[in-house]
Amino acid sequence: MDADEVLISVDPSLRGTGLAVLQRSAGKVRCLHFDVVKNAPKLSVAGCLLEIHVRLSDVMARFSPQTMAIESVIYVQSFPTAITLGSARGAALLAAAQKGLAIHEYAPRRVKLAVVGHGAAQKSQVAFMVRSLLGLTTTPPPDAADAIAVGLAHFQSTASPVRNRPRSA
C-alpha cells in the first residue's frame, strides 16, 4: 500500500498561476484544493511575483505537501514572454525551496499526453479530463485544471510498478 503523498502542482503564469493540492493514498488520487492566483493587469511584475510567492507559501503551510510538480518552460518566440514566464516559475520554485519540497518539472506536452492521451490537447479537453478522472463536481478554471493535470502527470510518472506475485507450486 502506498504511503499518503500530498503534492502541490503549479501551472505558472504572471497573471494567472494555476495551483492545486492533490493527495495520493493507496493508489487513489483526490484533489484537496485548487485555485488561480489572478494578478491584476495594473499590478507591477514585482507585485505579481510577490503575490505568487505568498499565495503558494500560504497553501503549502495549510496542506504541508512533500513535493511540488511544476510545468517546465515552454518554447516561446518572444524573449520578454520567456523572461516573464521564467520569473513566475522562479517565484513558485522559491516558495517550494523555502519549504524544502522535492521539485519535479514536466513539459506541457507530457502533461497533456498523461491526462488526455494527446500531447496537443486543448485547455478545454484537459479541464474535462481532470474533472472526469477525479470525479469533481465542477470543472476547474483552465489554469487550475492545467495545474491539476501537472500533478496527475507526476503521480502517473512516479506510480509504483505492478509487481508479479510469486506463483505457488
Please, could you describe this protein's structure?
Helix content is 45%, strand content 22%. The protein is an alpha/beta fold and 169 residues long. The chain has one domain (5-157): Nucleotidyltransferase, domain 5 (2-Layer Sandwich). Strands 3-2-1-4-5 form a 5-stranded mixed β-sheet, with helices on both faces. The longest helix is centred in the middle third of the chain and has 20 residues, at 79-98. The protein is globular. The chain contains 5 helices and 5 strands, in the order βββαβαβααα.
Rg on CA atoms, Å: 17 Å
Report mean pLDDT, rounded to a whole number. 88
> What is the share of helical residues?
40-55%
Number of strands: 5
Shape: globular
Largest sheet: 5 strands, mixed
CATH superfamily: Ribonuclease H-like superfamily/Ribonuclease H
What structural category arises from helix and sheet content? alpha/beta
Sequence of secondary-structure elements: EEEHEHEHHH
Task: Explain the layout of strands and helices.
Blueprint: E1 5-11, E2 16-25, E3 28-38, H1 45-63, E4 67-71, H2 79-98, E5 102-106, H3 108-116, H4 123-134, H5 142-157
Parallel strand pairs: 1-4, 4-5
Antiparallel strand pairs: 1-2, 2-3
Helix pairs in contact: 1-2, 3-5, 4-5
Task: Provide key terms for this protein.
169 residues; alpha/beta; Nucleotidyltransferase, domain 5; 5-stranded mixed β-sheet; 5 helices
Summarize it:
With 169 residues, the chain is α/β, with parallel strands linked by helices. It is 45% helix and 22% strand.
